[in-house]
Amino acid sequence: MTEFVLGMNAKIYLGAADAALSALTVLDNAKDVNLTLEAAEADVTTRGNQGWRATASTLRTCTVEFESLFKPSDANFAALSAAFRAGTSVRMAPLTGDKDTSGSEGPLANFVITNFSREETLEGAVMVSVTAKLSSFAEWVQVA
User: Fold this and answer.
1) Does any domain span residue 43?
2) Considering just the CA atoms, what is the radius of gyration of the chain in Å?
3) What 8-state DSSP symbol labels residue 29?
């Protein structure tokens, strides 16, 4: 059994809002993906906690950020661009591996595209920075 997971083997799956994982296709035009999972905090400190501040986890957030080559002819790139411009959701599943590989895991959810910024460096390919924020959670995928 592998003791680590390489980033190059991770996958982001993309499709229409509310689609099943089986209907999603690989977003292979993604580079340097970051999945951020965070929880807000509530102060639940009481006098009975012996002088220690107590914290409870509240609402969670999920953000996926990645770079993509500017490729309008690519169907997944076009879907992300259209979702950003229309303010609509797409279904995404950023997984640690293939959706059919045992041990792969990650969120399956609808996301809104909140950033679709283009970078045009003089000597590089035109790149787009994409930020997707969870809009409705479906499930945490854990492939058995």
Assistant:
1) no
2) 18
3) T
Pick from 129, 113, 117, 8: which is nearest to 67 by CA?
129
Q: List the domain range (segments joined by +) for residue 82.
A: 7-34+64-142
Angle at 16 between CA 75 and CA 9, to 5 degrees: 65
Host H or E run for residue 27: none
Polymer length in residues for the chain: 144
| 105-129 residue pLDDT tens | 999 999 999 999 999 999 999 999 9
- Give the span between the Cα atoms of 52 and 29, in whole angstroms: 48
Distance between CA atoms of residues 31 and 33, nearest Å: 6
Which residue type sits at 41? E
CATH of the domain at 104: 2.30.110
Q: Is residue 51 part of a domain?
A: no
> Would you state the pLDDT for residue 3?
82
Q: What is the SS3 assignment for 66-113?
A: EEEECCCCCHHHHHHHHHHHHCCEEEEEEECCCCCCCCCEEEEEEEEE
Asked if the structure places residue 72 within a domain, the reply is yes
**List of the chain residues with pLDDT < 50:** none
Total number of domains constituting the chain: 1
